Amino acid sequence: MTLTGVFFDAGNTLLSLDYAAIVDVLAGEGFPVTRDEVWGAECRARVRLDPFLAQVEVRESREVFSRYMRYACEEMGIPWSERAERVLGRLSEINRRESLWRGGAMPGAREVLAGLKGKGYVVGVVSNSDGQLETLVREAGLAGSLDVIIDSRVVGVEKPDPRIFHLALERTGVAPHEAIYVGDFYSLDVVGARRAGLEAILLDPLCAWPQLDCVKVQDLFQVSSLVLPNDERRTPPGDRLTPA
Ligand SMILES: [Mg+2]
User: What is the rounded CA–CA span in Å between residue 9 and residue 129?
Assistant: First the structure.
């Protein structure tokens, strides 16, 4: 078996949250927090949100976004209050109007995508998004390295439904067993990709997730090291990617 395609989630995998905007909104309501505090809280909020994502019907919704941001606030030690409600309202408004995923490319995203593409791999993004994915990816300077961009709003199906992964594979001519998928939510990214027949890697920057039955990495550079160890392209990923 040959690995030919590497596909990625968008939010928190290739695209960063706009931490500056979040810090601003929080400061405006009297919550002085740093970018790193928001980042740490958000990493922990993901783990708490995951069981909810596993059972809701629609993932790209205002309800999911609100819960995600509420958990992040709680993880920053911001108790639920009128002011916290205003923070949530303001963040929802920014996300609706211009997206909160305008923080640019995640560390390593440009280099890793370009490196994989340069070695001849098919590279793509599969995301639960709101129709803005292509614009965001372009603004982050990543579009040139991507062979396919799949936005759930555009195609009408969301992760973890295997059909969204199959769309990316069909459009690029990659077989499921020749592909891996990298994302930051276990129930959407790992479970979904596996249902579609791909191998999966969980991005867990702060080691915030419990022991899981999948490979975990802390950043995209580690993905690159797993896929391209000494550029041995012909080794099947299953032989290298032992569960963490
Ligand atoms: Mg994500």
Answer: 10
